[in-house]
Amino acid sequence: MLTHSLEETWSEFLRLMKERCSRVEYANWIAPIQLSTESNTAALLVPNVFVREYLLDNYREGCCTLVGHTTKSV
Q: For residues 58 and 63, what is the distance between their CA atoms, to the nearest angstrom?
């Protein structure tokens, strides 16, 4: 179950991305991403390898910052 703070942070990230991206880019690449937490680990769940690669190529740093650390093991 997500903590309230993490849910708020994720919602804010999605809101900012919706403002930053075109409608098509957001719908195709950002909206399908889901945040999951399990055993004190946050994970971004993506529907396929194409979304994963797009996310890593374009938003790795921002996503790592989102969860409070900068790690290369994304």
A: 10
What would the pLDDT profile of 17-62 be if each residue is shown by its tens digit? 899 889 999 999 999 999 887 777 778 899 999 999 988 898 887 7
* 27, amino acid identity: A
Query: What gap in Å lies between CA 36 and CA 66, rounded to an integer?
Result: 13
Q: Which two tokens stand for residue 3?
A: 């903590």
Q: Answer whether 74's CB lies under 8 Å from 63's CB.
A: yes
Does the domain at 4-66 match CATH 3.30.300.180? Answer given as yes
Domain ranges of the chain: 4-66
